[in-house]
Amino acid sequence: MQAKLADxxxxxxxxxxxxxxxxxxxxxxxxxxxxxxxxxxSPVPLDHLGELITPAVVRLRQTPRDWQDLWCSDGFYQIDPxxxxxxxxxAPFAWSYLPKGETVLQRLIDRRHAPVVGYLLDAQLxxxxxxxxxxxxxxxxxxxxxxxxxxxxxxxxAREHLADFSLIAHALQEAAYPLLxxxxxxxxxxxxRRELECLRWAAEGLTAAQxxxxxxxxxxxxxxxxxxxxxxxxxxxxxxxxxxxxxxxxLDN
Length: 253
Known about the structure:
Layout: H1 2-14, H2 18-31, E1 36-42, E2 57-61, H3 67-72, H4 81-88, E3 93-96, H5 114-122, E4 127-134, E5 140-146, H6 152-160, H7 162-180, H8 193-203, H9 208-215, H10 219-233, H11 238-247
Antiparallel strand pairs: 1-2, 1-5, 3-4, 4-5
Protein name: Transcriptional activator protein VanR
InterPro entries: Sig_transdc_resp-reg_C-effctor, TF_LuxR_autoind-bd_dom, TF_LuxR_autoind-bd_dom_sf, Tscrpt_reg_LuxR_C, WH-like_DNA-bd_sf
GO molecular function, one term: DNA binding
């Protein structure tokens, strides 16, 4: 396996984009029995209320055609117990939705998760492994490998390959991170350039009047931008707006 991982590192370094990197990873993951892959990355995994945010970057390999819509548009990410566990876990884990599959998920699953559980059972992808990768400044990436079947034997085999799959996941993230760029912006909040500019100055302690003078804009215009940003962030005042903008890493650049 070490030779294969060394070759993977070489291939990932030469791949020009994330899709090519996913293809390289999928080839090696399939040799471990993981035919379907889900990679996601979010610079901010939770909103200010502690709820899961749909990842900014998602790449799929060999998943059902409706997966992207269900998880990214129809709210499955928010009720996916694997994703919920990944946020709080620092170690890779195997999971199964089999009634007798004894994994960490059995302590978490309840009625809220029924759509996800039913879908994966029907798709015969009810067993797999997930590697959470917690990044500096709060970012989170995960790579999940899914099994085409979901027997106890599949679960045992998935556990046996968990360490190797984890090495693959970290190799992918190391190579992918520099390529994410603007694609990785948080999906939670979208502020205009002017709104961000005014918030950055507010974060420096400037009043609306001082910001208006700094930007050579009218006080009414600056107040409008700040108020709009407050509404988008669900903030009650400018101090809370700045705090939430920092949470969502909107003021990083």
